[in-house]
């Protein structure tokens, strides 16, 4: 009987061993998402310091095209770099001006930084309250201590909120946009138990030639500097973020700061501006019907017992004093009627 050749024997052993090893990698689920739409992309050229403004417009355009802006979203797709209409404040040069006025860069530095990027996204996308009130903020800048934690956070944010993520490329010197991912493991919308295979990246600088480009994990870590995701090394943001609690320099080398030597992204943290919970309408406490205060019963004035009139004692009937019967006075003897004496008739004169 012929002895098996060494190569065949080795192959048989490897086949046996492979049957004994669990094939977890092959059974793992691959998850993919990409929010890129060509109608939302724009270049920054020839404005070479406008990467933050172009990336801001790109991210809001993609959210609008996907219909994932959420509550309070007010941006509609727009790609004009410099509008001749001075009343138009959504063009790229206006967005750059706004970001620059609300960042933490040192005076006179070109472009903007992660705070200016975050503030422009929130203001143009959801209004002033989303920029100034952390409780209404839709996008926030986040700094991570490792490449893995930053890329996983970017994937989770895209999966959960269906919005792009801003990446501080060139070690903090350039704004790029992550629109999607390919991961292996659990669903990144509900779990952190996955491995990032790669990301979809778009860059507003034409010469970089990165438009909806898939970059594997290793390329992002050690590939060309144009798209390598490195820790933040810019040190020209000495100011504090005025819209967040506490006080801390943004990025410097001479003192503790927020971003320096960390991997920085600008990610969505909620689906939209939180809906104000209306104050509960209090259940009206029924007002008891007022009990009529009984009027005090008028105590009837006692009917005065009539004081009996004293019985008029009849005046005693006087016993009539007997009037003596007058004795009849005999009639007076009438005076004698005078006898008229005849007047003598005068004798006529002779």
- Describe the global form: globular
**Termini gap:** 250 Å
User: What is the radius of gyration?
Assistant: 59 Å
Helix content: 10-25%
Q: What proportion strand?
A: 15-25%
Question: What ranges have pLDDT less than 50 throughout 5 or more consecutive residues?
Answer: 1-25, 310-315, 322-350
Secondary-structure-derived class: alpha+beta
Order of helices and strands: HHEHHHHEHEEEEHEEE
Major sheet summary line: 7 strands, antiparallel
Keywords:
350 residues, seven-stranded antiparallel β-sheet, 8 helices, globular
Description:
- By secondary structure, the protein is an alpha+beta fold.
- It is 24% helix and 15% strand.
- The chain has eight helices and nine strands.
- The strands form two sheets. Strands 1, 2, 3, 4, 5, 6 and 9 form a seven-stranded antiparallel sheet that branches. The chain has a two-stranded antiparallel sheet with strand order 7-8.
Give the arrangement of secondary structure elements.
Layout: H1 6-20, H2 24-27, E1 30-34, H3 51-66, H4 92-101, H5 114-126, H6 128-132, E2 139-144, H7 147-161, E3 165-169, E4 174-185, E5 194-202, E6 213-216, H8 217-222, E7 237-240, E8 249-251, E9 263-268
Antiparallel strand pairs: 1-4, 2-9, 3-4, 3-9, 4-5, 5-6, 7-8
Give a quick summary of the entry.
By secondary structure, this protein is α+β, with helices and mostly antiparallel strands. Helix content is 24%, strand content 15%.
